[in-house]
Amino acid sequence: MIAAATLFLSFFHDREGFGLDREMAEDEEFEMFIRSYQNMVFSVSARIVGNLTDAEDITQEVFIKAYQRFKELRNCGTIGGWLKTVATNLSINHLNRYRARWRFFSEQAEPVEIAVEIESESDRKEALELAIRKLPDAQRVPLVLFHFQDMSYEEIAAKLHVSMTKVKSDIHRGRETLKKRLTK
Fold first, then answer.
1. What is the pLDDT of residues 115-132, one digit of tens each?
2. CATH number of the domain encompassing residue 157
3. d(Cα 2, Cα 57) in Å, to the nearest integer?
4. Do 131 and 90 belong together in one domain?
């Protein structure tokens, strides 16, 4: 997925006026950049949108934006934070496009049950990631923003355009749902 994006992105480059060696060096540098950050960007997106296919698309969008600004980002000390912010914003924008569906599913009374049997620490982490992805959007998004993105209730409320009471309530419900699903 990402390697194909790297090859495709190289066509955005205006090849006139640049030496072939310089172009190749820049393409290789950008490919190394993608490899360094792709897992972090993907996990941020996957946790927020809860859908791996959508997270792949968002990850590619993030790196397209990074490619467009690569000259200024390559020497930036806060590139990881920039990528995380862009991934978060694109993920939330993606969910906002489907707000009607989000409301429908967030109002469902019965959550989908997940049978989880935990054997080791890595299995426990995998089970937690799966349980988080299965949460309704209204619970998953604020929970992820709070626990994984270290955003405050106020920041989450502003970003999602909801009240702080709803944010607190959804985070609480999400925690309770996770607790029930992981202790079975």
1. 444 456 677 788 888 888
2. 1.10.10.10
3. 10
4. no
